[in-house]
Amino acid sequence: MAQVAEVTKTAAAAADNPVPVGVETRSQKKVPDGRKPQPTGRIEIPAIGLNHATYEGIDLSIINHGPSHWPGTAHPGEKGNTVFPGHRTTYSRPFWDIDRLKAGDHVIFTTAAGRFTYQVREGFVVDEGATWITKRTDDATFTIFACHPKGSARQRYVVKGSLVSSATTTTVPKTTTTSAPPRDDSLIPGLFG
Asked: How many CB atoms lie within 10 A of CB 112?
């Protein structure tokens, strides 16, 4: 009975995978079975009551634990686009209400480097192949996204915004940030199917 429940949970996760199939095998190591990835920080979205640990990597075995930083994109607080995919309907469902965010709402990332508050500019739906949502930006911006509609991986619901305040820290919090490999834009066309 437990095996059937695990197979059902795995199938449900595949239907709610914000990163297209095959991406994780080309760009990211998986978390070994039975191990939990180390949190790299937290994401808070007061408008939807979210306060969740964040992780590093776009493999499903990592995203299953919570919103995860896309390696090669800017880290929270840095100049550029910091990108975090997450689940809507499986596991802890951090982005369940992502579609309720509106312009002016705050998205707050806390890492070893500090606390960074972003303001939502827009939310919209794109097809799975819309790779431009991960593109670099000249300013400090964020992109979070999840599958859309709920329970389907056919499209993505995307929320974008800009950095409005930052408080860097000189002390190291309990979670640590792992360094990301340099971004390889040559992989992006294959990442979105």
From this structure: 16
Residues 6+ apart with CB under 8 A from 24: 30, 57, 58, 59, 60, 61
Domains contained in the chain, number: 1
Q: What is the pTM of this model?
A: 0.76
Token pair for residue 129? 């192949």
CATH number reported for the structural domain that contains residue 80 in this entry: 2.40.260.10
Residue 59 neighbours by CB under 8 Å, 6+ apart: 24, 28, 29, 30, 31
Question: Is there a domain that residue 46 lies in?
Answer: yes
d(CA 46, CA 49): 5
What's the CA gap between 69 and 5, in Å, rounded? Answer: 29
Which has the closest alpha carbon to 161: 144, 147, 185, 136?
144
pLDDT (tens digit per residue) in 37-79: 999 999 999 999 999 999 999 999 999 999 999 999 999 999 9
Indicate whether 16 belongs to any domain.
Answer: yes
Q: Model confidence over 120-139: pLDDT tens digits?
A: 999 999 998 898 999 999 99
Which residues constitute the domain of residue 102?
2-177
The strand pairing partners of 122, in sequence order, are: 160
Rounded Cα–Cα distance for residues 106 and 109 (Å): 10
Residue 84 within a domain: yes
